[in-house]
Design brief:
The chain has nine helices and six strands; from the N terminus they run ββααααααββααββα. By secondary structure, it is mostly helical. Helix 3 runs antiparallel to helix 5.
């Protein structure tokens, strides 16, 4: 692990921040290459990106505060001082969806058509972001004796608890990164072309992304060991959100179908 990518005196660039930024950049550049298919001009595209980014940040932070309320109440977490730390991915997706629903009336684009392309971009960007988690030592897994276990810690900037330093842990960051890459390539190479040629209805790619990622996250959560705040046994908050996402996709697909009539 390597929490600090570049250190220049008092100025530090975290590997986590660089990886997340790289993830956003890859997703945005790919979406920009598909701008004509999105039905947006240059100004409209960047307005959409800024709005979605704002929604993702707000949604991710609000859900993080919700599940970490105990740390806020006892003073271990500062709403202002610790703002750059702690975001919940599902909250970010929900926030971006809410913002996209609002901004479509401003820009006048097809929500479902744009959502399909975002559904392809998201897993590739997320895959890079999870590498930043590995470098920082967050989102770590349970102790394991499997040969691919990774020992974290050893760096003062690591967020892995010291009692776990040197102990092989499930590389849950890599599990999720690999899952996102697999989902992304399947959506890009199999489902999106079928939506383009109208063999599948618009919105199918995004719904498939939600279902596939939710299923992968539900399973990976069993191997995670980091404290993620409040939970509702027998599952974590993220697992309940994953199950909700799968159920929502099933309901929507049952109502609207997948193939055009």
């Amino acid at each position: 692990m390597h929490p600090i990518l570049i250190a220049l005196g008092p100025l530090h660039l975290s590997t986590y921040g660089a990886a997340v930024a790289a993830g956003y950049l890859v997703a945005i550049l790919w979406l920009k290459s598909q701008m004509a298919a999105l039905g947006l001009d240059e100004n409209g595209f960047w307005r959409l990106i800024y709005c979605l980014f704002f929604g993702a940040i707000v949604g991710g932070k609000l859900l993080y505060w919700a599940v970490s309320y105990r740390d806020i109440l006892d003073g271990r977490l500062s709403l202002v001082g610790d703002f750059r730390y702690g975001f919940v991915f599902f909250g970010g997706v929900l926030g971006a969806l809410a913002m996209g629903t609002v901004v479509k009336f401003w820009l006048g684009f097809s929500f479902l058509a744009v959502a399909d392309y975002i559904g392809v971009a998201l897993p590739f960007g997320h895959a890079l972001g999870r590498l930043g988690c590995l470098a920082a030592g967050c989102c770590y897994g349970r102790p394991t004796s499997l040969p691919w276990g990774i020992a974290l810690g050893g760096d003062p900037a690591s967020v892995t608890p010291r009692e776990l330093w040197g102990i092989p842990l499930h590389p849950t960051q890599l599990y999720e990164s690999a899952a996102n890459l697999g989902i992304g390539f399947f959506l890009l190479k199999v489902l999106l072309p079928r939506v383009k040629c109208r063999k599948l209805v618009a919105g199918t790619v995004f719904l498939a992304y939600v279902a596939f990622y939710s299923a992968a996250r539900f399973v990976i959560e069993f191997f995670r060991f980091d404290d993620r705040g409040a939970s509702l046994p027998p599952f974590s908050i993220s697992q309940w959100l994953a199950l909700t996402g799968i159920a929502a996709v099933a309901v929507v697909m049952a109502r609207r179908g997948v193939r055009p009539i």
